[in-house]
Amino acid sequence: MKKKGLYQLKKSDNKIKEYTLSVLTEDKAGLLNHITIIFNRRKMNINSLNVSTTEVKGVSRFTIVVESSKEKIIKIVNHINKLIDVLAAFLYEEDEIYYQEIALYKLSTKIFLKGDLVEKIIIRKYGAKILKIEKDHIIIQKTGTKVGTQKLYDELKKFGEILEFARSGRVALSKKKRKTVNFIKQLEKTKSNKLNI
Amino acid sequence: MKKILGSEALIKSLLEEGVDTIFGYPGGAIMPIYDSLYSYQDKINHILTRHEQGAIHAAQGYSRVSGKVGVCFATSGPGATNLITGIADAQIDSTPLVCITGQVPSQLLGTDAFQESDVIGISMPVTKWNYQITSSDEIGEIISKAFYIARSGRPGPVLIDITKDAQFSEVDFNYKKCERIRSYHPYPIINDKKIKKASKLINKAKKPLILVGQGVLLSNAENELIKFSEITGIPLASTLLGLSAVSCDHKNYVGYLGMHGNYGPNVKTNEADLIIAIGMRFDDRVTGDTSKYAVNAKIIHIEIDPSEIDKIIKTDVAINADAKEALIGLNKIVQKNSHKEWINEFRECDKLEFDKIINKEINGSYDKLSMAEVIHKISEFTQGKSIIVTDVGQHQMVASRYYKFTEPNSNITSGGLGTMGFALPAAMGSKIGNPNREVIAVIGDGGIQMTIQELATISQYSIGVKILILNNNFLGMVRQWQELFFDNRYSFTEMKNPNFNKITDGYRIKNKKLEKREDLDKVIKEFIEFDGPYLLNVIVEKEENVFPMVPSGESVSNIRLE
Description:
- The complex is a heterodimer of chains A (197) and B (562).
- With 197 residues, chain A is α+β, with helices and mostly antiparallel strands.
- Chain A is 30% helix and 36% strand.
- Chain A has six helices and nine strands; from the N terminus they run βαββαββααββαββα.
- Chain A has helices at residues 31-41, 70-82, 109-112, 117-125, 146-157, 180-189; strands at residues 16-26, 48-53, 59-69, 86-92, 97-108, 129-133, 137-144, 162-167, 171-174.
- In chain A, the strands form two sheets. In chain A, strands 5, 6, 7, 8 and 9 form a five-stranded antiparallel beta sheet that branches.
- In chain B, α13 links the parallel β12 (274-278) and β13.
- In chain B, α9 (192-204) packs across α14 (323-333), α11 (222-232) runs parallel beside α14 (323-333) and α16 (371-382) packs parallel to α17.
- Chains A and B meet through α1, α2 and α6 of A and α14 of B.
């Protein structure tokens, strides 16, 4: 189990890739600002950011998606780990996590009623679901990757104008077997709180 | 339990943390705290500076000489924003501070109230931690956290903002010292495998070099460091902030690193086969071009802050630990060794540097006095035992080069941030932090004018600092760069200065002007021996350059001797 600590780069790696950061923090006002200025200082754009509570009371999870070289992102992760109220920042490549995003699409009911769009495209092909049907509009919901939600968007657009569209930030869980509450307990017990000489 | 006001709870919390000195400046939003302080004057010495920047630099100087946490007070709005430069300075130079700022009442937050500024937002990137207290119940817990965070691990500045209503409301006060924060692990558990791996590299190295940073001073590892160097026979070179951790007369000490450092340690960095960097962060003023730095060396980096490891220079063995703890571990297993020939190579470099530069600098070859001969004289006269507080510029580099420190925690300077105006207030804080030692502020004619108002503080409290102005009527370091790299185009660097002696008369501080070489010995003696504050205005050579010099962005091997 990785403790709050140090990421090191084995060899120089300047390839730009997508990385997901999962940051466990104390639930403290202002921390969002504290984390984002670390990216800002290095002129790094954040592709998506999600903050939510976790299964442990008082602990929040930030999920941040960026495109970066490994060299650059490791420095950022180590800097985030340094923040006093951060419990731990973890760095993941795509194959190390399960992740999803959610997208909502608002269409006019008229388009919706054209032929067999719903059954063929929305439900069967994309695994989307209808959230609400109103007189003048309907709401469709799909969870998946950004690529998947975008594909559905492009497909729906062929049938007419999409009234409104919103996509959430990524949420992710690591493939490692880890129980957050145990991890926090371990942090509470370490002897790194004082000098042991 | 008897309830007390939040403002008094704050003062009591500071007393619980052992605070006996505060530098500050009152104002509207911090008045309840000042009112409570009035009743505790027998326990706390408050120094009223003449500007909040003066207060924070004084707290920095106080902390750097005493090892204690420096404390300063300021009011909201401009009081708080005036602290920011000092906070940034303390952050980059790892100085433990707790800054307390008053804030407008909580119901007025975010309304553009009189003297309201978002000091939490402004200070976020330059503090180790900050917090806004809006209820008196939080005071004890937050202050104990603030001190724990400021002083532990890699130290740094903490800012606590307290709204006026929190100061005014009542609280049941009880204080518990903070001993752990679950999200903060200041002392990494040492990895014994890394110590073993490092010792193997150390044992087989032919040309090893130790780089001594401020981390050695911050962890009080001076003795362990000397022991390490004496067992292994490895030469010691120091960064600017590491100066005074090793006595300059130690047989293994080979000088000062960096842009204006000594010739030997800079050029030999690229000949070394092993660099052991201890409590330092490979600043660009030390490394020059990193792609041409330590090209033949394996790197061992002993560093308490994990985010510094591999940040600039890739390590072969990273020991993420407190410097003292790591050195104790290494000293148990490294082999006895000697590197006499390798150290002699440094001595050859010293000879070259002496012949080409030092000899003419200290032996009066200019018409006017040179900065180096004044510092050299002071170094000899005080036997390297004084605390030297420097500002930023040529005089700073000259003082770092020519003052031969023999005692630890004696070099107080603004290294990372390079803050002009630092020295005068930092010197008065240093004197208060260590009243038994001689404190000499070395300042240029530019820097003194940035915080000259603190002469009033020095005068009011009769703080016995010695103030040495090395006056060339130029912003000398910028002028030097203009001469060397900007085709002698002296764009806005010449200064028509006031009469510093008359100004000092106005502040009722003893002072003298020194121009003639034949007066140097006599005046320096008088300056040092005088009991009380004394300002000496020395007119030095107008267009002197500091050499050696590693031009910005070049390899340390390209260090220029002329």
